[in-house]
C-alpha cells in the first residue's frame, strides 16, 4: 500500500510538472536540449558549466519519441529518477536485505531530491549512473562500473570523484587481506577506474577549465577548497535525520566515556565552523526572497544567533551520525571522498550534497522501524512543500 501511494504521488508529480515555465537553470538546460533536438549542435557554453551529455541524452529520447516540449523533457527526467530509485533499491537489497523497501520509500521522499526528479537538471541522471556503478562495483562487475562512471563524467564532470571512491572500494578488500603481496590483482582491479579520471583530465586540458563555460569558471574555480558545503551538508543531515542523530549521540557519549579526548572533537568542529564558514560566492547572495537557501546562508554570515544555532545542529549531526554502522566496511571511504567533493565547490548548494548523502543512506544501518517511518513522514511532508513551491513558482531551493 505504501508503494502504491508513493507511486501515485510520483505520477501526480509528473503530471503537474508537464506545464509551467522553466525554473532556475532549466532555462539554459532546456535551451541546449532544444538545439540538439533540432539538429543544431552548437553549445551554449556561455551558460552551461557541465559537459552536455545529459542534454544529448534527453534530446535523443525526445527525438525518438517524437516529443518536443519542456514538459516532455521533465517527464524524461522523471524516468531517470525511477532509474536512480531502482539502482538505490538494488544497492540497498545487496547490502542490507529486508530494508530496501522502507529505504527506497525514504529516497522517493528525500526533499533535496524530489524537485530535481521533475525538473530539467543534470543531477538525477548522474545520481542514477553512480548508484548503478556502485551496484556493479560491489558485484565485481568492474567493466560495467567503469562504463557507468565514464558516462557520469559526460553528465556532471565534477562527479569524477566517485570514480576514485568506487575504485578504492573495489581494491580495499584485497589490500586489507594481502597488502602489496597481490599487487598485480590490485592493479587489475583498480586500473580500469582510472579511465573516467583520464577522461575528466582530458576534458580539463582541452577546455582549459573544469567548467565548460569559461565565463562561469571564475564562480566555479578549480584547485580551491572551501568549507561551506561540508558544513552545510552536516546541517542538512542533522535537519533531515534528527531522530537518528539523537539516537547516535548516546553511542558517541559512550565513546567519550571510554576515550575522554573525544570531547575535543565537537569543540574543534564548532570553532572551525564559526571561523571558517563563509557563504561568499556571489550566487549565494542572489534573490534571498526567492531562494530560501540563500536567505538562510546569508543569515548565518550576518546573524550570530542563527550562526550559533546552525553550528549546534552541525556538531550534533557529526557526533550523532558518526557511530552509524556502514556496510561494506570499505564504505567508510565515503567520508574523505565526500569531504573532498563538497569542499571543491565554492558555491553552496544542496544539490552538491545529493550524491554523498544518498550513498550514505544506501550504506547505513537503519535504526528502529518507528524512527525510520517517522523519518519517511517528515521527508514526505517537506518534499510535498518543496515540490509545490518550486513548480508553483513561489520559490526555488
From TrEMBL:
Name of the featured protein: Glycosyltransferase RgtA/B/C/D-like domain-containing protein
Major subcellular location class: endoplasmic reticulum
Pathway: Protein modification; protein glycosylation
Entry keyword set: Endoplasmic reticulum, Glycosyltransferase, Membrane, Transferase, Transmembrane, Transmembrane helix
InterPro entries hit by this protein: Alg10
Transmembrane region(s): 6-22, 43-65, 71-91, 112-133, 185-206, 231-249, 261-277, 304-322, 334-353, 373-396
Keyword Transferase appears in the UniProt entry: yes
Subcellular location: Endoplasmic reticulum membrane
Pfam families linked: DIE2_ALG10
Membrane topology of this protein: Multi-pass membrane protein
Amino acid at each position: 500500500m505504501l508503494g502504491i501511494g508513493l507511486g501515485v504521488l510520483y505520477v501526480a508529480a509528473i503530471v503537474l510538472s508537464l506545464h509551467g515555465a522553466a525554473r532556475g537553470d532549466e532555462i539554459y538546460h532546456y535551451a541546449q536540449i532544444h538545439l540538439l533536438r533540432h539538429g543544431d549542435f552548437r553549445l551554449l557554453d556561455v551558460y552551461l558549466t557541465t559537459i552536455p551529455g545529459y542534454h544529448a541524452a534527453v534530446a535523443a529520447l525526445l527525438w525518438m519519441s517524437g516529443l518536443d516540449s519542456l514538459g516532455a523533457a521533465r517527464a524524461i527526467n522523471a524516468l531517470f529518477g525511477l532509474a536512480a530509485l531502482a539502482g538505490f533499491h538494488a544497492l540497498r537489497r545487496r547490502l542490507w536485505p529486508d530494508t530496501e523497501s522502507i529505504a527506497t520509500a525514504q529516497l522517493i521522499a528525500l526533499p533535496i531530491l524530489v524537485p530535481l526528479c521533475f525538473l530539467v537538471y543534470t543531477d538525477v541522471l548522474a545520481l542514477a549512473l553512480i548508484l548503478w556503478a556502485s551496484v556493479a562495483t560491489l558485484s565485481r562487475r568492474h567493466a560495467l562500473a567503469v562504463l557507468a562512471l565514464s558516462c557520469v563524467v559526460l553528465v556532471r564532470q565534477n562527479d569524477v570523484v566517485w570514480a576514485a571512491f568506487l575504485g578504492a572500494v573495489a581494491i580495499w578488500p584485497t589490500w586489507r587481506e594481502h597488502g602489496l603481496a597481490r599487487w598485480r590483482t590490485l592493479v587489475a582491479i583498480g586500473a580500469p577506474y582510472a579511465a573516467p579520471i583520464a577522461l575528466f583530465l582530458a576534458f580539463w586540458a582541452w577546455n582549459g577549465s573544469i567548467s565548460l563555460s569559461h565565463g562561469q569558471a571564475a564562480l566555479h574555480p578549480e584547485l580551491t577548497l572551501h568549507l561551506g558545503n561540508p558544513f552545510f551538508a552536516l546541517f542538512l543531515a542533522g535537519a533531515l535525520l534528527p531522530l537518528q542523530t539523537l539516537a547516535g549521540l548516546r553511542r558517541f557519549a559512550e565513546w567519550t566515556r571510554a576515550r575522554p579526548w573525544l570531547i575535543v572533537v565537537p569543540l574543534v568542529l564548532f570553532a572551525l565552523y564559526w571561523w571558517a564558514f563563509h557563504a561568499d560566492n556571489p550566487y549565494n547572495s542572489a534573490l534571498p526572497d526567492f531562494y530560501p537557501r540563500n536567505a538562510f546562508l546569508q543569515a548565518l554570515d550576518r546573524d550570530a544567533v542563527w550562526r550559533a544555532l546552525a553550528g549546534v545542529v552541525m556538531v550534533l549531526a557529526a557526533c550523532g551520525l558518526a557511530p552509524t554502522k556502514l556496510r561494506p566496511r570499505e564504505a567508510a571511504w565515503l567520508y574523505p571522498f565526500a569531504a573532498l567533493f563538497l569542499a571543491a565547490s565554492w558555491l553552496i548548494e544542496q544539490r552538491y550534497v545529493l550524491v554523498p548523502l544518498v550513498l550514505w543512506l544506501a550504506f547505513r544501518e537503519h535504526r528502529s522501524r518507528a524512527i525510520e517511518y517517522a523519518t519517511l513522514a517528515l521527508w514526505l511532508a517537506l518534499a510535498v512543500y518543496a515540490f509545490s513551491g518550486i513548480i508553483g513558482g513561489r520559490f526555488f531551493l
